[in-house]
Amino acid sequence: MSIRVAVIGGGANCEHEVSLASAASVADALDPTAYDVVRLTIGREGGWHLDGREIGLIGAAAVLAGCDVVFPVVHGPRGEDGALAALCELAGLPYVGSGVRPGALAMDKWATKLVAQAVGIPTATGVLVTAATAPGLRWTHPVVVKPVSAGSSQGVSKVLSAEELAPALEAALALDDRVLVEDVVVGREIDVAVLRRADGTLFVPPALEIVVDGLFDYDAKYGGQADFRIPAALDETDAKALTDAAVRVFEALGCDGVARVDFFLTEVGPVLNEVNTMPGMTAHSQAPRMFAAAGMPYAVLLDELVHGAHR
């Protein structure tokens, strides 16, 4: 008997298009002999759609109630931040990925920094800025400005001069009411994926290095300019330090399913950048490519996620 899986994509946020691609890839790759896939989409305005027609939240709830597992592939706010996990929890529906608390914590880059620091994982020196405090912020050295709770590098700017600060803050505040201003960290950009298998054990595939000329922003991420090197060329000491740090923050946040933990590898070791509890999930996205490099094909990764859904 096939498992009926509701794959949810889209979302009312700036990562809508990225989520559509991830959800379509997941739905297409689930084995049709094992799964009966239902494709639900959340529009940019927040409406729920099935097969191109709007059905509303009540209609979506009825569809979800007829499914065995929910696979939410909505990146960013009102999705990855625990919102869809909360909906599933309230409806008593098994779902793939992290729960409400880890989703909310990891989506909030400021909260993630506090959790990481509490378990001994270094993060970039930074300050939290709002619209009220932004006018008083003065530029003294290069910084990175980013929305606290947006993803896909949306609204992120590298500020190298005083005149660039105000426009960068304005762009970030257009996407969130809180902004993180961090010191520029000099180091290699290394991503580590962590999977909690259905039996509760953790699996960490080889790390991936991002080689890009300049800031790894939205255009670099999705425009093909970045060079992903997997496995990353790491010595045994650095590889272990990155794996240990990724697992420590994954467990401290309480993550489930798959998460991508992004680091800067500096001369003094790993510095945490951010944690994605629903990373890009096309077959060519960073996390699936890391698992493929470890001998876990995309379809097998999806099987692990479905069978490890919250019950």
TrEMBL record:
EC number of this enzyme: 6.3.2.4
Top-rank taxon, per record: Bacteria
Pathway where it operates: Cell wall biogenesis; peptidoglycan biosynthesis
Entry-linked InterPro entries: ATP-grasp, ATP_grasp_subdomain_1, D-Ala_lig_Van_CS, D_ala_D_ala, Dala_Dala_lig_C, Dala_Dala_lig_N, PreATP-grasp_dom_sf
Cofactor: Mn(2+); Mg(2+)
Compartments, as annotated in UniProt: Cytoplasm
Recorded catalytic activity of this chain's protein: 2 D-alanine + ATP = D-alanyl-D-alanine + ADP + phosphate + H(+)
Chief location: cytoplasm
Key words, A-Z: ATP-binding, Cell shape, Cell wall biogenesis/degradation, Cytoplasm, Ligase, Magnesium, Manganese, Metal-binding, Nucleotide-binding, Peptidoglycan synthesis
One Pfam family here: Dala_Dala_lig_N
Transmembrane segments: none
Signal peptide range: none
Residue ranges constituting the ATP-grasp domain according to the UniProt record: 113-307
UniProt GO molecular function: D-alanine-D-alanine ligase activity
Functional note: Cell wall formation.
PANTHER family, per the entry: D-ALANINE--D-ALANINE LIGASE, D-ALANINE--D-ALANINE LIGASE A
Recorded family membership: Belongs to the D-alanine--D-alanine ligase family.
Designated name of the protein: D-alanine--D-alanine ligase
Organism: Nocardioides ginsengisoli
Gene name of this polypeptide: ddl
